[in-house]
Amino acid sequence: MDNQAVLLQSYLKPGDIYISEKSALISMHLSSCVSVTMSNPRMRAGAICDGLLPSCKGKMPCECEQFCREGIRFVDCSNMRMLGWFKQNGIPRGEIDVKVFGGPDMFSSKESISDSTVGQQNITIAFHVL
Known about the structure:
Elements: E1 8-11, E2 17-20, E3 24-27, E4 34-40, E5 45-51, H1 75-88, E6 97-102, H2 118-129
Parallel strand pairs: 1-3
Antiparallel strand pairs: 2-5, 4-5, 4-6
């Protein structure tokens, strides 16, 4: 048997999240979704989300300890869960490398109901939480 580590491969569906302490190859498709990646090289830990919508409209803001059923679909909730996971594992925010991808405008402003498209709202919420 080969001594090389087996690289995990996974497809991240829209509105899903992946957190691991093992190397993985993640593939996904972004539309107006925003993908936020967080990693800590020291602990060799990483997380990625594919947020569909900007924010949860629940009565209480998402807390990492109180997992709602739909939470990971939302950019704010999935970011809070990932940050919560790093905190629970003793990794302070200052040691987390963060990258934000996606959030394109799928429709022109003329076709949008509001002045801000879903992609723009997703990006705004991602940076607000971070």
